[in-house]
From TrEMBL:
This is Putative transposase. InterPro entries: Cas12f1-like_TNB (IPR010095), Transposase (IPR001959), Transposase_put_HTH (IPR021027). It comes from Thermoflavimicrobium dichotomicum. GO terms for biological process: DNA recombination; transposition. GO terms for molecular function: DNA binding; metal ion binding.
Length: 386
């Protein structure tokens, strides 16, 4: 069984320089492969594979740009093969036309497989990466030192560097079974992040003072960055530093605030999943949400995107697989909010402003979200995800 462990690195300045150079080379080769095939595609020529382009890089392009050799050969080839995969998905109609990668997006990864015995050796506080040597870890003891490491991937987020290590672990550990028979229904929303059928409510973290304060700082930095671009482009003024170092510093401040917001939201979702796991239910029932359709509402699109419903679902899936809990998913058209959790009567009209559900048949009165969570727990038709 393969398991991934992601943690933050604490590299030296020399190692940071080499990591950034390797990411730049991988981005350059990715864009070169796209540009080369775009030109062939417009001329009506056949599509060139990643293996053939890798030979072209090694024999011809590396002579024109000798600095390509700074990056490891496996990392270069992985970037080319990723570009080939993007093209294949485009031709199959599975994704849109691949686009060139930009430096500011920081979406380029550096891949290192284990080719030699001396590669990817893990100790408590450090890991040995090919072409980089021993690199310190910020979180000590997280990556297991006894497992067999297969590969690793380096990523950058703002001014931080992370490593994802793929480790082969033993499958002898059996899933933990619970003797509890009662399950949990989970209703997701915007007013409250999640409402459980047992009455537990998780607030929307995006309404907290910490998130609002960070978003206010982000807005201020974005306006400052916008002004710098406006001075340089429209008014014809020159920046104080001709190299544009002030703009780069402002971009870094914006990136750090975006990363901080993402970490705060992800940590809260992990907290919600851990609290659900402590309840030890026999099953968890959630509703399949049409997030793409919900995002079309321009008034609620930002609030929905900030909640991260898909990430929560993946965390729930991993937790349920690990603990042996059954994760159920009901149809998106299941009327969880309109059904009475007491008698089962369906209310035909229920506006979004009605936060208290009142049954027209039995008179049962309950909070709207709690009523939906109880209906999800009692659902008879569902799909088992674990």
């Amino acid at each position: 069984m393969l398991k991934a462990y992601k943690t933050e690195l604490n590299p030296t300045p020399e190692q940071i320089t080499k990591i950034v150079q390797s990411m730049g080379i991988c981005r350059f080769l990715y864009n070169q492969y796209l540009g080369y095939n775009f030109a062939r595609y417009e001329q009506g020529e056949t599509f060139i594979s990643g293996y053939d382009f890798d030979k072209y890089v090694n024999h011809e392009l590396s002579k024109q740009y000798p600095w390509i050799k700074i990056c490891g050969s496996k990392a270069r080839k992985k970037a080319i093969m990723n570009a080939e995969t993007a093209f294949k998905r485009f031709f199959k109609g599975q994704s849109r036309r691949p686009r060139f990668k930009k430096k500011k997006n920081q979406d380029v990864k550096v891949y290192f497989p284990k080719n030699n015995k001396g590669d990817l050796i893990v100790e408590r506080h450090r890991i040995k990466i090919p072409t980089l040597g021993w690199v310190r870890l910020k979180e000590k003891g997280y990556i297991p030192t006894t497992g067999k490491v297969k590969s690793c991937t380096l990523t950058q987020q703002a001014d931080r560097f992370y490593i994802s290590v793929l480790v082969e672990v033993s499958t002898s550990e059996s899933k933990e079974k619970h003797s509890y028979v009662e399950g949990i229904g989970m209703d997701l929303g915007i007013k409250h992040f999640a409402v459980l059928s047992n009455g537990q409510v998780f607030k929307n973290i995006n309404r907290s003072s910490a998130i609002k304060r960070t978003e206010k700082r982000l807005k201020r930095e974005q306006r400052a960055l916008s002004r710098k671009y406006e001075f340089r482009k429209k008014r014809g003024e020159t920046t104080a530093t001709k190299s544009g170092s002030n703009i780069r510093k402002n971009i870094l401040r914006v990136q750090k605030l975006h990363a901080r917001l993402a970490r705060m939201r992800e940590a809260y979702r992990a907290f919600v999943v851990s609290m659900i796991a402590k309840a030890k239910p026999s099953y968890i029932t959630i509703e399949k949400l049409n997030v793409q359709g919900m995002m079309k509402n321009r008034h609620l699109s930002k609030s929905i995107a900030d909640q991260g419903f898909y990430d929560l679902k993946m965390k729930l899936l991993n937790m349920c697989t690990k603990l042996g809990i059954e994760l159920r998913e009901v149809n998106p058209f299941y009327p969880s909010s309109k059904l009475c959790s007491s008698c089962g009567h369906k209310k035909e009209k229920l506006s979004l402003s009605e936060r208290i559900f009142q049954c027209e048949s039995c008179g049962h009165t309950l909070d709207r979200d709690l009523n939906a969570a109880m209906n999800l727990m009692q659902a008879k038709e569902y799909v088992v995800l674990t």
